[in-house]
Design goal:
Layout (H helix, E strand, L loop, with lengths): L13 H10 L6 H31 L8 H11 L1
Length: 80
């Protein structure tokens, strides 16, 4: 896949948010703000993927028949 080096992107209403962050000094320019947003999305995707894998692992591990919810609640309350 070929990607343009400096693509023109319509940010819509997100442009105003980016420009506000630049004006506040959080970013040098709009491109830097956009890159930060994309990095955040990538980080969020990695977290979601990891949580999904852990949930799948937990579901595959079966049910602990010895677990007692009442004991768990009491121990949790005592710990706080």
């Amino acid at each position: 896949m070929s990607v343009a080096r400096n693509p023109s992107i319509d940010l819509g209403s997100a442009e105003a948010i980016g420009l506000k962050l630049v004006a506040e000094g959080r970013f040098e320019d709009l491109s830097e703000a956009c890159r930060a947003g994309l990095r955040r999305l990538a980080d969020d995707a990695r977290i979601i993927d990891r949580l999904a894998a852990l949930a799948e692992e937990g579901m595959a591990s079966g049910i602990d028949e010895t677990f007692d919810i009442d004991v768990f609640v009491e121990e949790t309350r005592a710990a706080t």
